[in-house]
Design brief:
- It is built from 14 helices and twelve strands.
- With about 525 residues, the chain is α+β, with helices and mostly antiparallel strands.
- The protein has three domains: about 180 residues, 2-Layer Sandwich (Chloramphenicol Acetyltransferase); about 210 residues, Nonribosomal peptide synthetase, condensation domain (Chloramphenicol Acetyltransferase), CATH 3.30.559; about 30 residues, no CATH class.
- Strands 4-5-1-10 form a four-stranded antiparallel beta sheet.
- α8 crosses α9, α8 crosses α12 and α9 packs across α12.
- The two termini are about 40 Å apart.
């Protein structure tokens, strides 16, 4: 996640009057809530981490530790109700920390014994059966109104082998919030003294953020920078793009071995760019190759935790902003990396404009077939998604992405929890556009491109490995055409124009090419 650049002398965030009624939601929460209403009952915005626990686990002590974290953080007790009057702002309700907390209930997963079977040892059960069960739990939707929006479940494979599965809705959490949760969980499990409640709550930040006016200078920079830039990334797909984007997705996992990543990270150091920038540049180059376009917009997560008092608060502090990568084929990969670093610094300087405001300004005509403005996301962390620890236990985190896709392609790369300088790549894709085999080829091609770029960073981008056949040409183009247009009528121009139409139909493998 990209850290925000702190403006000089940030204004003070006041604490809200708790008796003044429900606090407002943040801009990011509002946008996410409205997106959730479009696809209710899906796991698209679930965040799940599974933790393999090896050793003697004290389950009651773990249950109490979870309850302690929930009692300390308002966000974990927050639910959302749809507004009843225009503009139908969602209303959030924060539960009483002293009330009974159903979210703190922690027990063995149902059906674990029958799934595991007597012939499978405990370790195999955790690695196979428990992970399948964790995926099923990760894909269970939340009821935003009734809550709770945090689930903690435990799979018991044996007296020394457990899998703790923690799922939060993104409305109340983000990546750093997961680490805060597990840090405080470790303190509670170890019996450390309870911390005082945070001086600021997420609701305080949300109210302060919503009260700030849109920065006209920042919005003007975005308007100028993205003027004329295509806001639709036309990737080749296995299936025709439906009129309305579906919420269902798939995940392909791929390991970027140390032999691949070490040269890439050394190159970042040599170029004096961050590892995030280098990997983002490789991903944008990959997208540019696939789409056959030189300008690519990639959505990246930007953290809003720009002050110490927010560092230990659980909440949805992240926003997504587009980064323009101008992947001209004559540029070298090294030059493009430096350009992306400069672009990213400019983006962070103008980070107070939200993605929702940018989409309204730059892509007002919404096409329900794809996400507005940006259709590809990217995340990179050199560390694992979380680093859990519980006294007396060996704890290993496992990312469990939900089977839902926010955009066409979303690449997430994290340092491996197993160490050895490996990195875990997860490519989440829209299942209504891509086949699982295509996602596998995409990940493999991305690795080839990264290896070649690290080996010859001064070579032009056009010399990097080609993505030919990453998305195979349909055997029957007519069967996959989204909405075939009538063939051009014979006229005085039929000669050259008809020939051009037929050539492009064959080159692109599509039957819906017309005179225009």
């Amino acid at each position: 996640m990209i850290e925000r650049i702190t403006a000089a002398g940030p204004d003070h965030i006041p604490a809200l009057d708790r008796t003044a009624g429900p606090p407002p939601v943040s801009s990011a929460q509002r946008a996410l809530y409205l997106a959730e209403l479009l696809h209710p009952g899906t796991p698209m915005y679930n965040i799940t981490v599974a933790v393999r626990l090896e050793g003697s686990l004290d389950v009651p002590r773990l249950r109490n530790a979870v309850a302690r974290v929930v009692a300390r953080h308002d966000a974990l007790r927050t639910t959302f109700v749809r507004g009843t009057t225009p503009p139908f702002e969602p209303v959030q309700r924060i539960g009483d920390p002293d009330a009974e907390l159903p979210v703190a209930g922690l027990g063995a997963g149902s059906g674990a014994g029958s799934d595991a079977g007597g012939a499978v040892d405990a370790v195999d059960a955790v690695d196979a059966v428990a992970l399948r069960l964790a995926q099923r739990w990760a894909d269970e939707p939340f009821d935003l109104e009734r809550g709770p929006l945090l689930r903690t479940r435990l799979f018991v494979a044996g007296p020394q082998h457990h899998l703790l599965v923690v799922t939060m809705h993104q409305l109340i959490s983000d990546g750093p919030s997961l680490q805060v949760f597990f840090d405080e969980l470790a303190e509670g499990y170890a019996g450390a003294p309870e911390r005082a409640a945070p001086a600021l709550r997420f609701a305080d930040y949300a109210a302060w953020q919503r009260a700030r006016p849109v920065d006209a200078d920042q919005l003007g920079w975005w308007r100028t920078r993205l003027a004329g830039v295509p806001t639709v990334l036309r990737l080749p797909t296995d299936r025709p793009r439906p009129a309305v984007a579906g919420p269902h997705g798939g995940n392909h996992r791929h390991t970027l071995r140390a032999a691949v990543m070490r040269p890439a990270l050394r190159l970042a150091q040599h170029l004096r760019v961050t590892p995030f920038v280098l990997m983002l540049t490789a991903y944008a180059t990959f997208l540019s190759q696939l789409a056959g376009t030189r300008d690519v917009l990639v959505g990246v997560p930007v953290s809003a935790r720009d002050r110490p008092e927010l560092e230990s608060v659980i909440g949805f502090f992240v926003t997504t902003l587009p980064v323009l990568v101008e992947a001209h084929h004559d540029r070298s990969f090294a030059d493009l990396c430096r350009s992306v670093q400069s672009e990213l610094l400019d983006v962070l300087t103008c980070r107070d404009v939200t993605m929702e405001q940018l989409a309204q300004e730059l892509a007002p005509e919404r096409d329900p077939g794809h996400a507005p403005l940006v259709q590809a996301f990217f995340s990179f962390e050199q560390e694992p998604i979380v680093s859990p620890r519980l006294a007396g236990l060996r704890a290993t985190a496992i990312d469990v992405p939900p089977s839902g896709a926010k955009v066409d392609l979303d690449m997430m790369i994290f340092g491996s929890a197993e160490g050895a300088d490996d990195f875990d790549l997860t490519l989440t894709y829209r299942a209504d556009l891509f086949e699982a085999a295509t996602a596998s080829r995409m990940a493999a091609h991305f690795e080839r491109l990264l290896v070649a770029a690290a080996a010859q960073p001064s070579a032009p981008i056009r010399s990097l490995p080609s993505p030919a056949e990453v998305v195979p040409r349909p055997r029957n183009p007519a069967a996959t055409a989204a909405a075939p247009r009538p063939a051009p009528t014979t006229s005085a121009r039929v000669g050259m124009e008809q020939n051009l139409v037929e050539i492009w139909r064959e080159v692109l493998g599509r039957d819906d090419i017309g005179l225009d």
